[in-house]
Specification:
With 517 residues, the chain is α/β, with parallel strands linked by helices. 46% of the residues lie in helices and 6% in strands. The protein is built from 21 helices and nine strands. The protein has helices at residues 2-7, 41-44, 51-70, 89-100, 113-125, 144-148, 157-167, 209-216, 237-255, 275-279, 285-298, 305-329, 357-369, 374-387, 392-402, 408-419, 436-442, 463-474, 476-479, 486-494, 497-512; strands spanning 10-13, 33-38, 49-50, 74-78, 104-108, 130-133, 172-173, 176-177, 222-223. The strands form three sheets. It has a five-stranded parallel beta sheet, sandwiched between helices. The protein has a two-stranded parallel ribbon with strand order 3-9. A hairpin with a 2-residue loop joins strand 7 (172-173) and strand 8. Helix 12 crosses helix 16 (408-419) and helix 18 (463-474) crosses helix 21 (497-512). The structure holds flavin-adenine dinucleotide (FAD) and iron/sulfur cluster. Flavin-adenine dinucleotide is lined by residues 259, 271-275, 278-279, 314-315, 318-319, 322, 373-374, 377-378, 382, 399, 403, 405-406, 410-411, 414-415, 418-419.
């Protein structure tokens, strides 16, 4: 028996988004366990990723590997250009098992359907026993949302969120929400005052030039720009905690108020920018909300409750909800196209070269920082793409590539679901589209734009205006019965026929000349 134990050798795979140093795997040092992390082409090449995303992942993986090595765990790290790196999970795992005589293979549940399926196949193909364990990161299990809504046709975020608040006793007083009110959305949608200067974001000055050089030696196709001597994103747990600390001390008091606000040249505002840290699991959602609640408890006079609730809702509500939808609806979700949209993404989505101020700002900051906040993603770029009838595959590829936090489970549910309504209403109850009036209400983009927000037709009319009505007109059969939209069709039907013709004509012109906008 003792002999058998001595001979047991376990290989444990750590994926690039599984950098959870508090995982029970690392509680004890075991000389019979070897961890492996790999930088591989199957992961760098499934989309055209932002250069900051590729470098950010590699930097975080390397720093995680060094951190667990320093604690005396045994680690194999395959760099992108290593000769022995066979560039895929299956090949590397098979090679390592054969060369190191591993007797067991273990991995943590992947968050991505594609990788999940792949690793299941790998387990079947190898001749040693395998074991998959939880990532110990999320509040919910993969299938928890599916069980929660069993037999229901709609999946209301609000009911799931409230159930999770109760289950995990977050901001509760017995069975009731603290303060008696669940939802503070109504207080959380303010425009930034014109004279208001938002806080400068905390950024890091990580030197990632060595990694960048290594990536440059490969043929990996990337988008966007990078300042490799001053890489702004957190690349380890310490920096992630610093960013969280900065958020709760400097931004939380205005988070809810300005979470939907937009203004030129301010890429961060009062947002937390912790999605990358959380999605690669350098920090957990539990510690994020605990820290926010602690700060609110320490400064009740400075941080109003609506700001805190707005934040907690994003983490324990939206983030867990999207994950549940993903695992409930994949793989079908990835091919849903409710409106049967077929157009290509305008070229300027990749360059930012457009005269539309709002689009220019949102796209350029995405190219420069691999980041845009939620409303920029939803009501600027996503809104335009939906109005323009772009195929959801094209839109998914863009969002999956451009944002540093983009991992399919949270990208596709937000993009195809929330933003594009391509799921026909699983995530949202109506499509998120707007004309210039919403954008002007929430931002300072329109005043200096080439286009005029108040014009619906003519050379300088804001494209959002005519495309908005064109969208409703062409999708009437699919939307007119939606109780949340019916009112818009009443307005459309009451419009003078000549005005309708002019709007549709204008939209048609813009769609035909979309690359010139
Ligand atoms: C079209 C589109 C695509 C998106 N793609 C991604 C993506 O690839 N990866 C990603 O993490 N988020 C995505 N989101 C959700 C959201 O925009 C980002 O989580 C957020 O902007 C990240 O920045 P932050 O950390 O500053 O967030 P904050 O605004 O400070 O919010 C705090 C945290 O709440 C969570 N959160 C907020 N909104 C959502 C949401 N709708 N779904 C899930 N979690 C949420 C995030 O973890 C975020 O870090 C997308 C949204 C849209 C509309
Ligand atoms: S006028 Fe139209 S295109 Fe210009 S910033 Fe406003 S909404 Fe955007």
């Amino acid at each position: 028996m003792a002999n058998k134990k001595l001979m047991s050798k376990t290989l444990r795979l750590i994926l690039g988004d599984q950098l959870n140093s508090n995982h029970s795997w690392y509680k004890s040092i075991d000389d019979n366990v070897t961890y492996v992390l790999m930088e591989i082409r199957t992961e760098t090449d499934y989309a055209s990723h932002h250069i900051q995303k590729v470098v950010g992942f590699f930097a975080a993986m390397r720093s995680f590997s060094n951190a667990i090595k320093a604690k005396k765990h045994h680690v194999i790290y395959l760099n992108i250009n290593d000769d022995e790196n066979l560039q895929s999970f299956d090949k590397n795992i098979q090679h390592l098992i054969a060369n190191h005589n591993f007797t067991h293979f273990e991995y943590q549940l992947p968050d991505e359907y594609r990788v999940d399926e792949h690793l299941k196949k790998v387990c079947k193909s190898i001749s040693i026993p395998s074991l998959v364990v939880d990532t110990e990161h999320f509040f919910t299990a993969r299938n928890e949302l599916e069980s929660f809504f069993e037999g229901k046709k709609t999946f209301l975020l609000e009911s799931f969120y409230r159930a999770l608040r109760k289950k995990h006793t977050v901001l509760m007083e017995g069975d009731k929400p603290l303060t008696g009110q669940w939802n503070y959305d109504g207080e959380n949608r303010k425009k930034l005052p014109k004279v208001h200067k938002p806080i400068a974001p905390l950024v890091f000055n990580n030197n990632v030039t060595a990694i960048l050089q290594e990536v440059k030696k490969t043929s990996i196709k990337t988008i966007g720009t990078i300042d490799a001597e001053n890489f702004v994103w957190p690349i380890n747990r310490e920096q992630s905690l610093q960013l969280l600390d900065f958020f709760v001390t400097e931004c939380l008091h205005l988070f809810g108020s300005y979470q939907d606000a937009m203004t030129p040249n301010e890429w961060s505002l009062y947002h937390a920018r912790i999605s990358f840290s959380m999605n690669v699991k350098m920090i957990s959602p539990q510690e994020v909300i605990d820290r926010a609640i602690e700060e609110w408890q320490n400064r009740p006079d400075e941080i109003e409750y609506n700001q805190l609730e707005g934040f907690v809702r994003q983490i324990i509500g939206w983030r867990e909800y999207m994950r549940g939808i993903y695992w409930h609806k994949m793989p079908d979700y990835a091919s849903m196209n409710f409106f049967n949209n077929m157009e290509k993404l305008p070229d300027w989505f990749w360059t930012g070269k457009t005269k539309m101020n709002c689009m220019k700002d949102a796209i350029n900051q995405s190219l420069n920082y691999a980041y845009a906040h939620h409303i920029q993603r939803l009501m600027i770029t996503g809104n335009f793409a939906l109005l323009a009838g772009v195929h959801p595959d094209e839109i998914d590829a863009w969002y999956l590539g451009i944002y540093i936090d983009a991992i399919e489970w949270v990208e596709i549910t937000n993009t195809r679901g929330m933003s594009q309504f391509a799921d026909g209403g699983i995530v949202g109850t109506k499509p998120y589209v707007s004309s210039a009036s919403y954008i002007d209400k929430m931002s300072h983009y329109c005043g200096t734009c080439f286009y005029k927000k108040a014009l619906k037709t003519g050379d300088k009319s804001c494209p959002f205006n005519s495309l908005y009505w064109n969208f409703y007109d062409r999708n009437e059969d699919k939307l007119a019965k939606n109780p949340r939209i019916g009112m818009m069709y009443n307005v459309w039907r009451k419009m003078k026929p000549e005005d309708k013709v002019a709007l549709l004509h204008q939209a048609d012109y813009y769609l035909k000349n979309i690359n010139e906008l």
